[in-house]
Amino acid sequence: MALACVQEGVPAFGSESDLPPREHALELLRQMLRIRRFEEKCAELYAAEKIRGFLHLYIGEEAVATGAISVLGPEDAVVATYREHGHALVRGVSAEALMAEMYGKVQGCCRGRGGSMHIFDAKTRVYGGNAIVGGGIPLAVGLSLADKMRGEPRVTACFFGEGAVAEGDFHESLNLAALWKLPILFCCENNLYAMGTALARSESETDLVLKAASYEIPAWPVDGMDVVAVERATRRAADAVRAGAGPYYLEYRTYRFRAHSMFDPELYRSKAEVEEWKKRDPIALFAARLRAARMLDDADLSTLEANVREEVERAVAFAESGTLEPVEDLARFVYSEVPA
Amino acid sequence: MNGAATATAMRTMTYREAVREAIRDALTRDERVFLMGEDVGHYGGCFAVTKGLLEEFGEERIRDTPLSESAFVGAGIGAAMAGMRPIVEIMTVNFSLLALDQIVNNAATILHMSGGQFNVPLVIRMTTGGGKQLAAQHSHSLEGWYAHIPGIKILTPATLEDARGMLWTALQDPDPVLIFENTLLYNMEGELPDDADAVDIDKARVRREGEHVSLITYGGSLFKTLEAARVLAEEGVEAEVVDLRTLRPLDNATILASVSRTRRAVVVDEGWRSGSISAEISARIMENAFWNLDAPVERVCSAEVPMPYARHLEQAALPQVDTIVAAARRTLGRAGGPDVDER
Predict the structure, then answer these.
(1) Which of B118, B68, B110 is CA-nearest to residue A130?
(2) Searching chain B, which residue's CA lies closest to the CA of residue A142?
(3) C-beta atoms of B72 and A168 within 8 A
(4) Quick check: A120 and B60 CB within 8 A?
(5) Which of A114, A139, A335 sits opposite B74 (nearest CB)?
């Protein structure tokens, strides 16, 4: 039985979170701030109608993408959901290319064809951005299958929300990955709401770790508001996956501070609940701990904020000055352009 | 291919064996190729197509999957994006609906949606078609439906040569290719040269030349249509039979050249009439060759019912030689006999 989280002698991930060295700690803080400030700007730009379509903000969940993706190497792969700006930023997609994508400009990472929900980047091995809940999970299994068949010591980090756990793709994919011992790390981002449906109103079993354990996949819950806990748990799991242990599964318990999308009046949860969770703001929590440990002072924070602000401003300027793909190119890339 | 002086030795084999040989050849030639699907290994394939391949190539490359169409098709997509060349087998087109999300929302979209960054060199094979009394959940012909979708290619090999030769070309294609094998063809015997090799996947073929009417078809209906052409010949009507071979992209040039010459067209399609590939072909003829036509385009399709089990009902639902002959006669202004084809 792979219910490792309750096995004797195995420490529960997330319970220990000693701070990393200062330089790395500040980098984690910076990455979370980048996501937060970038997305706050996105919300503004959405109101200004610069960004259209659907826009799903990750604000409140920054510790998950930051801690998890920090431990991956350049050869690893990331598969994410339609709430993936944070994953793309931490993975190394430039804020410029990301913002230009949301502006629908040809300088965007997908030439403006994907938009907010479909961020792809070959250079950093980001295989989407997938706006079908659960739709990226089988694809991630396939990436890891290719690695396994070629003996590549790579990890595919597959992110999905807890809503995806209700989809058949989740179950089919976990079974296949476990059956074939594939090098994939399943990263469940449990923010408690599938759009507006609370976990308890959509799952008969709300302990999502048990679901993975039932497929004989080692699985742990992690405090998703604690970037250090996220990083530590992910590193251990990713190391095991890379070493050939087969798939691992982490459930990051987190919370979305903003509405599901820009059209969501949030009728399904109380303001008090949101405020309660905001007390566990991953950025504020981490900054406070760093201050207490004398790793961060006002000047450090100001510098970080200024750098991030400048990066976001650069991204907006880049997107503003970008150009639109010529309409004549509409049908390009329906099929590959095979050199003659 | 072979000059008169170097007659190639011919072998008798079935369509099934031709497909198997194509898979074996691909596995031998390219180490990135592997096969996965339900019962492709230990069982030997639901239709015995892959029999013996597990023993020859091993479990790494001949992968039995759980009954998880969405997961293993999606896994094929991911593996293809990562540089492998998977052949994914789905037992029947009806089962492929369980993987429709992966095919339509991922395989077909990712190249365009990623701005050209990620192509999906995946081949999916599946059986299609009725006639074996398998009723409404194993017998439909949905290839025309798949042909609606930009981003994928749709192949319908009818001959041994195409069964043997299309797979390798599909595997060289940088984009997703779906191959539909009509169940009734597996036992068909024919001759194939010893050195049979890859064939193109973008051109229709004239399988029988004729001057009076073009009969346009593909897949399992090809042989009924050729038989209809023989019956028509007895009446002095020389029908040209066009085998589409590929439903997406459609070879407009071959279709239009034939119809412009014969001035009459019958489209034979085992799919349902409404919103079908036959409707698309008819529309293209109207758009591009209207002034060359001497008669309205006729269509012979499956009756618009879920495929029934009872043999007499199933046969009544499918295109048949006599319904094809009758449609051809109508285009020639001849007494067509009873128009049993539901309009």
Answers:
(1) B110
(2) B75
(3) no
(4) no
(5) A139
> Residue B79's closest chain A neighbor by CA?
A142
Q: For residue B303, give the amino acid letter.
A: A
Architecture, CATH, for domain B11-193: 3-Layer(aba) Sandwich (3.40)
In a domain? residue A9: no
Judge contact between A173 and B71, C-beta under 8 A. Answer: yes
- pLDDT higher than 80, residue A142: yes
Distance from CA of A324 to the nearest CA of B (A): 13
Residue ranges of E strands in chain B: 10-14, 33-37, 62-64, 85-92, 123-128, 153-155, 177-182, 189-193, 205-208, 213-217, 239-243, 246-248, 265-272, 298-302
Q: What is the mean pLDDT of chain A?
A: 94
Which of these, B222, B112, A242, lies nearest to B104 by C-alpha position?
A: B112
ipTM, 2 dp: 0.93
Residue A197 distance to chain B (closest CA, Å): 23
Identify the CATH number of the domain in which residue A153 sits.
Answer: 3.40.50.970
User: For A37-54, what is each residue's pLDDT tens digit?
Assistant: 999 999 999 999 999 999
* H helix or E strand, kind and range, residue A144: helix A136-150
How many Å lie between the alpha carbon of A194 and the closest alpha carbon of chain B?
A: 19
| Interchain CB distance below 8 Å, B81 and A145 | no
Among the options B17, B21, B38, B69, which is catalytic? B69
Predicted local distance difference test score (pLDDT) of residue A339? 64
Give the number of domains in chain A. Answer: 1
Shortest CA gap B180–chain A (Å): 20
pTM above 0.90, yes or no: yes
Asked whether residue A337 is assigned to any structural domain, the reply reads no
Question: Do the chains contact at A143 and B82, CB–CB below 8 Å?
Answer: yes
Chain B residues with at least one Cβ partner in A under 8 Å: 34, 60, 63, 65-66, 68, 70-84, 86, 101-102, 105-106, 110-119, 150-151, 153, 174-175
List the domain range (segments joined by +) for residue A305.
17-319
Confidence class of residue A3 from pLDDT cuts 50, 70 and 90?
Answer: very low
Strand A120-121 relative to strand A126-127, pairing: antiparallel
Is A333 inside a domain boundary? Answer: no
Q: Is there a catalytic annotation at residue B59? A: no
Taking only Cα atoms into account, the Rg of chain A, rounded to an integer number of angstroms, comes to 20
Q: Is residue A334 part of a domain?
A: no
* pLDDT score for B5: 53
Cross-chain CB nearest to A338 (options B81, B82, B174): B174
Residue A12 has pLDDT above 80, yes or no: no
Q: Distance (Å, rounded) from C-alpha B208 to C-alpha B230?
A: 10
Per-residue pLDDT reduced to its tens digit, B224-279: 999 999 999 999 999 999 999 999 999 999 999 999 999 999 999 999 999 999 99
For chain B, where do the domains classified as CATH 3.40.50.920 start and end?
Answer: 205-331
Fold of B205-331: Rossmann fold (3.40.50)
